[in-house]
Design goal:
By secondary structure, the chain is α/β, with parallel strands linked by helices. The chain is built from six helices and four strands, in the order H-E-E-H-E-H-H-H-E-H. Helices cover 47% and strands 12% of the residues. Strand 2 (32-35), helix 2 and strand 3 (53-54) form a beta-alpha-beta unit.
């Protein structure tokens, strides 16, 4: 059974997970900045990204990413399939790692996707909040 302190930490973490584009300038409130894309963002130098880390293993599989193709009509099915991927193997471990980071303070998930609300990062944010 979780202690009151552990419960408070989880509630606090759920309020401090944000999703932003990696191309946006860093904000002091970002906390730990983690790139959650499988591919490095085009046109962005690594030194300009100002990341704490690049967590490729939490990104959707290449097959799922290609199938989705950011077609809005496929988003719900994509989200369901992606949640399935997050429950297995290295993606599950990476998700656990991100939960630990969120428990330690603000966490900003970064993606190169133009449509952030329809991205895997938005699905990932919700998965991190659910635990």
């Amino acid at each position: 059974m979780a202690t009151k302190m552990q419960k408070t930490k989880k509630v606090h973490a759920s309020r401090t997970i944000e999703v932003r584009r990696v191309y946006d300038p860093p904000d002091p409130a970002d906390g730990t900045r983690v790139l959650v894309d499988r591919l490095w963002p085009r046109g962005l130098a690594k030194e300009d990204a100002r990341l704490a880390e690049w967590c490729k293993d939490v990104a959707p599989s290449s097959e799922l990413r290609k199938w989705y193709g950011h077609e809005e009509g496929r988003f719900e099915e994509f989200a369901e399939r992606y949640r399935g991927e997050l429950a297995e193997g290295s993606a599950r471990e990476a998700l656990g790692h991100l939960r630990e980071l969120a428990a330690d303070g603000p966490l900003t998930l970064l993606t190169a996707t133009k449509e952030v609300p329809l991205s895997h990062a938005a699905v990932l944010k919700e998965a991190l909040r659910r635990r």
